[in-house]
Amino acid sequence: MDKQEIKNVILEMGARARAAAHALTILSADKKNEILRAMAASMREQEAAILEANAQDIAAGESNGLNAAMLDRLRLNHDRIEAIATGIEEVAALADPVGEVLTEWTRPNDVHFEQIRVPIGVIGIIYESRPNVTSDAAVLCLKSGNATILRGGSEAIHSNKAIAAALQSGGEKAGLPANAIQLIPFTDRESVSVMASMDQWLDVIIPRGGKGLIETVVSLARMPVIKHYDGICHTYIDKHAEMAMAVAIADDAKTHKPGVCNALETLLVHRDIAADFLPQIAEVYKSKGVEMRGDESVIEILGSDALAATEEDWDTEYLDLIISIKVVDSMAEAVEHINTHSSRHSDCIVTSDGDRAQLFMTQVDSACVFHNVSTRFSDGGEFGFGAEIGISTDKLHARGPMALRELTSYQYRIRGDGQIRSKNATT
Amino acid sequence: MDKQEIKNVILEMGARARAAAHALTILSADKKNEILRAMAASMREQEAAILEANAQDIAAGESNGLNAAMLDRLRLNHDRIEAIATGIEEVAALADPVGEVLTEWTRPNDVHFEQIRVPIGVIGIIYESRPNVTSDAAVLCLKSGNATILRGGSEAIHSNKAIAAALQSGGEKAGLPANAIQLIPFTDRESVSVMASMDQWLDVIIPRGGKGLIETVVSLARMPVIKHYDGICHTYIDKHAEMAMAVAIADDAKTHKPGVCNALETLLVHRDIAADFLPQIAEVYKSKGVEMRGDESVIEILGSDALAATEEDWDTEYLDLIISIKVVDSMAEAVEHINTHSSRHSDCIVTSDGDRAQLFMTQVDSACVFHNVSTRFSDGGEFGFGAEIGISTDKLHARGPMALRELTSYQYRIRGDGQIRSKNATT
Questions:
Q1: Whether residue B249 is found in the same domain as residue B343
Q2: pLDDT digits (tens, 9 = 90+) for B310-347
Q3: Which residues of B touch A372 (CB under 8 A)?
Q4: What pLDDT score was predicted for residue B233?
Q5: Which chain A residues touch B419 with a CB distance below 8 Å?
Q6: By the CB < 8 Å criterion, does B363 face chain A?
Q7: Is A414 on the interface with B (CB under 8 A)?
């Protein structure tokens, strides 16, 4: 297809998605849940077709030289399809955010105001290899009353098509409006820029993938983009920290699952307790094979157990068993370091002093700030949200773990009995 | 200055604004209010300097051929400066949104979560001629704990500088952090694109002005943009409308102040009551000099009192004593017309049937939907917000009248007593 054809196809999908979004506004919570359960059933029914499509992607991936980890992310099997179906049923069981009255009040002229949670409308999602995102994202958007236009990566195109077809056909049997879930059936690069340009149809765009993808979308998009950037997370061990707790938290945050965005990357230690704390955590880190990169003060205390950190280390998300460590003279220095180097995702203070913790939390400009809790709890599931679409590093609209509520907007509904401004103004 | 110099100056302002934003996070509500009152006093003290600067702008405007309306928007005098100062004092009297606990909960592992309202950080505001925006915008941002970088229009540059200087010097005496309010001291077009590019320093950008300005910012900006587009507002007179109320609302919404964004532009009338309603409203409109442009059914009923509407009329914000009128066969047709042609700002239904009103409100995809109330109440003051920075036509973050709350973000503060994910996970 040439650029113009790609553009025409996607623009038509946009117009159809808008119509679907309007149709979705009047579906009851029960109806949406019925549709979701039908989708889950359809996923199971169409397992053979999905696995066959997936085998095509795997074969193509192998001949294109994808590495083992990439092939694993791409691969579906019975258990993974069952997990997708179960995930859909779990979303059906969550409370419907739509229709919630956020605030209401009456003005002196008896005009009554309600602020009501409503769907956003049409959500564009651009993602990379994992085919389960096709279902996860579409289902969360549907539960919150939104139409979706999905654009997956080329490696998973057959799997994505099969999953989207299963969702759509299962959903339609239960009353899903036509075109509520649409997958762009090709993966030309041009499709990203067409999506990013059509702000008449897409209310928001969510890139799920690496920094390169996010950067591309940000530079092209005319509509709001909800970004999920890196997690350069810090833990600050205050001079009033309890040692055993500090060691346990610094251990857990770094080593429990080092490859995820809420893992610890930089440890900041107050000078007053550095000589006590650092050897203790170093012992744990050494036993677990964590490479330590410290500033001069750290090297003084740990000797050859630590390498010398460079300036670049403070801005690096290792996603690996590597940690940068810095000794600070004060909490203010820790806050300053975090506000300069953090990706504003999740940062922690370990201290027994509640007032200092409060000041730290007020000053640290991050989505999630933890006091005496591992940053590994920066997660929609651990927040109790039931399912998450990601962790937003943005400050507008959605910040931190993004779940159903963050996939909604609001509308003011104003009721009266004939009030006109020329007679009933209050200002 | 060449492009590189402009860029350097503005990037430095951005870095300073970020530092100011961090300093603002720990100011108490009382301190901010003290600063605001000092700014108001400073505006009054520096009246002579401001008027002198304004005289330069007026002289330049006259020699550049600005028309009378534009010169009027630009002109300051004692009363207008007093109004700016009073406006600042009114903002000081409003409740501080920062620190509000939006939600809080405890998980089974005793980890406690708080969602707290916090400042956004650094807000960029790009605006056109009125110099009072310099104060209005900076003051609302400050009250909500944000630093601002202001970029006004070239016509008002001297006035803007004098006002910003008065705010800054008055505020500093009372403890305003340095660089909390910065005005870009030149108006080269390049400054807009530099602001739009510096997402490391600006958390959001708010263009206040015409469609051209907003379009430019949208196409360039890497950070979220909160847009205040047109108001193509509709009023739908249902078949169950009370006639006197319908006439009064259609009159008020169109004629009370036709040049504003919440004024009525298109009237939709149910066919069952068209022959009754249209002659009544036409009589009012004729007496007030409103030009009516109708579809065929309207012309049939009103004859030569109405002109024939073209397709373009349904997408036009007249901001004038002109109205387009269409007869619809059903409420569904009215909803469809509105969702196709409305700017999603403010739309109204007049009906005595509460269920139909509820369905209309659920289906109309606009920021504000009114039932038996004139759309002219779509206004921060009439909502009771005290002061507004504009009416957002966006759906993310801020929708409808934007006031102090909409100038904030939130942060999760998570407290525990040593919980680690490897031991205390709940999922």
A1: yes
A2: 999 999 999 999 999 999 999 999 999 999 999 999 99
A3: 415-419
A4: 97
A5: 372-374, 377
A6: yes
A7: yes
Percent of chain A with pLDDT over 70: 100
Domain containing B25 — which CATH number?
A: 3.40.605.10
Upper half-sphere CA count for residue A136 (Cβ side, 13 Å): 19
Say whether both B404 and B365 belong to one domain: no
Residue B347: alpha-carbon gap to chain centroid: 17
Say if residue B345 is in the same domain as residue B406: no
B280 in contact with A at a CB cutoff of 8 Å? no
- The Cα of B26 is separated from the nearest Cα of chain A by a number of Å equal to 7
d(C-alpha A357, C-alpha A369), whole Å: 10
Query: What pLDDT was estimated at residue B137?
Result: 93
- Which residues in chain A have their CB less than 8 angstroms from residue B365's CB? 21-22, 25, 121
Q: Cα(A384)–Cα(B426) distance, rounded to whole angstroms?
A: 8
Q: How far apart are the first and last CA of chain A?
A: 58
User: What is the pairing mode between strands B346-350 and B233-237?
Assistant: parallel
Gap between the Cα atoms of B361 and B383, Å rounded: 18
Sequence-ordered list of residues with C-beta below 8 angstroms from that of A132, at least 6 positions apart, any chain? A76, A80, A83, A84, A87, A163
Query: Is position B187 within any domain?
Result: yes
Nearest-Cα residue of chain A relative to residue B196 = A219
Any idea what the Cα angle at residue A170 is, between residues A165 and A171, rounded to 5°?
Answer: 100
Residue B256 touches partner A, C-beta closer than 8 Å: yes
Q: Do B397 and A397 touch (CB under 8 A)?
A: yes
CA distances to A63, A136, A206, B278, B403 from B398, in Å: 48, 26, 18, 37, 9
A11: in domain: yes
- d(CA B203, nearest CA chain A) in Å: 7
Nearest Cβ partner for B381 among A257, A422, A427 = A427
A391 is a domain residue: no
Q: Do A26 and B359 touch (CB under 8 A)?
A: yes
Q: Tell me, yes or no, whether B208 and B255 share the same domain.
A: no
Q: Does A339 touch chain B (CB under 8 A)?
A: yes
Q: What is the pLDDT of residues A53-99, one digit of tens each?
A: 999 999 999 999 999 988 999 999 999 999 999 999 999 999 999 99
Which residue segment(s) compose the domain that B247 sits in?
233-383
Distance CA A253, CA B299 (A): 72
Q: Which of A254, A260, A298, A305 shows the shortest CA–CA distance to A283?
A: A305
Domain count of the fold of chain B: 2
B248 touches chain A (CB under 8 A): yes
CATH code: domain of residue B321 = 3.40.309.10
Mean per-residue pLDDT for A259-271? 96
Residues A195 and A258 in one domain: no
Asked if the Cβ–Cβ distance from A421 to B107 is below 8 Å, we say no
Q: In which region does residue B198 sit, left (phi positive, over 0), alpha (psi from -120 to 50) or beta (all else)?
A: beta
Residue A389, domain member (yes or no): no
Q: Is residue B173 domain-shared with residue B283, that is, in the same domain?
A: no
Residues of chain B numbered 79-98 and touching chain A (CB < 8 Å): none
Residues B221 and B257 in one domain: no
pLDDT (average), residues A336-343 = 96
Reduced to 3 states (helix: H, G, I; strand: E, B; else coil), residue A81 is helix
Q: Are residues B51 and B197 in the same domain?
A: yes
In angstroms, the CA A113 to CA A116 distance is 10
Q: For the residues A407-420, what does the mean pLDDT come to?
A: 97
A299 in B contact zone (CB under 8 Å): no
Q: How far is B75 from chain A (nearest CA, A)?
A: 24
